[in-house]
Prior knowledge:
The chain is an all-alpha fold. It has helices at 6-25, 30-38, 47-59, 70-75, 89-111. The chain is globular. The N and C termini lie far apart (45 Å). It binds zinc ion (2 copies).
Amino acid sequence: MKTPDQSLLKQDLLRIREDIVCGFHSGFPPCCIKFFVTKWLWMGNTKARKDHWKKIRRVRCFDVEYIPCPECLKNKTFVKLKKCPKTCAKLKRVKAWIKKEKKNAAKSKRIK
Length: 112
Ligand SMILES: [Zn+2]
Ligand SMILES: [Zn+2]
């Protein structure tokens, strides 16, 4: 059996820590955060994941910008997103990523 790449796994786990903290910033229900970090992230491209995704799309009454857990999905308990504080590590990571992507897009335009 192949051992998983420990450094990648470490990166993932550290990122999950940010996801959890940020989940609370956003006001997500703890059960959904738990579902996201313990199940959803590791489901890969499975049928269970696709089915859950289909259900989300079906019951969506307003734009849910997170993955609700099966329980909340069934009861249609969704929350509206709250804003992150400026100190949010995930917010910073996402902003840095967007900046990089924009730079890359500008670069590839110049080449064409
Ligand atoms: Zn946050
Ligand atoms: Zn939930």
